[in-house]
Backbone:
């Protein structure tokens, strides 16, 4: 079974406190909501303290065209995509020696917050010396589910080609989807929650020569599952209009976690002869505070099992697909013991769930 060999995370340069973002929202939405003060507590009820954006806060106070925002998406995705790839391939916490670009057999690129043809990984390949024959697998439209889905697709690639080494790159610049002309409550909620981030993960097949570089106990992917909830297109996603991407984010998501997702995840573990009580790590995408509380309620979890997810939410907000990989990085950085089990879980448009079963093992 494939290993998660190394990981790296990165953010654009503009760090913004939640207090400053709340003040921005107060000014921006004040003419649209008569009692704006009643809505502002959402900024701190979510337990987010800071986030990272692709532009300074004042940039969002003026309107920008879809083309202008998308051009910035491409620029930032390439610039910071290069940085996060290099972090993952040179991370001395997991690697005795840096990996070379020529050793990467495939790049899985995951994003939902911007458009680019050629896709971003092709543009990056013109800056970093990957082989020209490296396979490219861009994936668009999975939203918050994309991080775990990227791991799952890398797992499947490395099961088919056991000597392969695959790079998963997730880039989401949610701030650039902010709609200046949208004074709806949905846009206000999105302004309180979403942020920008990038993550890169190196996945190695069990016969990959890159495993010789492994420095410590690593999570091994044992099994994956993708599940689609029928007739649930309106739960989460984008409405694509002339001005760009408008967020769809239904308030029923925590309820769906407690009902539908509980059954999905419990069945996934049961098929592997496991229950939630067998897990040391619950690498959950922190869609928001209420989503994390729904995980706790659904499975009877102690908050400590979700502490990494809470910390990522507090420090970075919801960055869509890379967020679960920020949580994974925190889990991997701990002094993990051989045999510990975990599950990586994320939910996204569809409505859908992505699950990856992990076991910490010493590389043989």
Residues:
């Amino acid at each position: 079974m494939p290993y998660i060999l190394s990981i790296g995370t990165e953010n654009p340069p503009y760090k913004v406190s939640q207090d400053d973002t709340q003040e921005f929202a107060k000014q921006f939405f004040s003419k649209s909501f008569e009692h704006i003060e009643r809505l502002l507590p959402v900024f701190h009820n979510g337990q987010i303290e800071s986030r990272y954006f692709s532009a300074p806060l004042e940039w969002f106070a003026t309107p920008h065209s879809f083309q202008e925002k998308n051009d910035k998406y491409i620029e930032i995705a390439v610039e910071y995509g290069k940085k996060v790839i290099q972090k993952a391939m040179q991370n001395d916490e997991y690697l005795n020696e840096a990996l070379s670009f020529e050793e990467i057999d495939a790049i899985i690129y995951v994003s939902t917050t911007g458009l680019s043809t050629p896709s971003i990984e092709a543009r990056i390949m013109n800056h970093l010396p990957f082989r020209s024959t490296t396979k490219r697998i861009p994936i668009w439209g999975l939203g918050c589910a994309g991080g775990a889905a990227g791991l799952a697709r890398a797992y499947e690639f490395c099961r088919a080609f056991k000597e392969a080494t695959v790079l998963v790159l997730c880039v989401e610049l949610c701030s650039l989807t902010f709609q200046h002309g949208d004074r709806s409550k949905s846009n206000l909620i999105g302004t309180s929650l979403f942020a920008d981030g990038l993550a890169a993960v190196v996945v190695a097949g069990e016969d990959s020569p890159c495993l010789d570089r492994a420095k410590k106990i690593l999570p091994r992917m044992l099994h994956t599952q993708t599940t689609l909830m029928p007739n649930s297109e309106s739960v989460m996603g984008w409405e694509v209009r002339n001005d760009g991407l408008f967020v769809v984010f239904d308030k029923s998501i925590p309820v769906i976690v407690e009902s539908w997702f509980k059954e999905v995840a419990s069945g996934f573990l049961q098929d592997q002869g496991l229950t939630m009580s067998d897990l040391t790590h619950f690498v959950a995408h922190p869609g928001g505070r209420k989503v994390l509380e729904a995980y706790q309620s659904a499975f009877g979890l102690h908050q400590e099992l979700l502490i990494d997810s809470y910390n990522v939410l507090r420090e970075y907000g919801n960055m869509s697909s890379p967020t679960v990989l920020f949580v994974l990085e925190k889990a991997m950085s701990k002094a993990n013991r051989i045999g510990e089990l975990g599950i990586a879980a994320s939910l996204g448009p569809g409505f859908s769930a992505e699950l990856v079963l992990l076991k910490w093992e010493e590389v043989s």
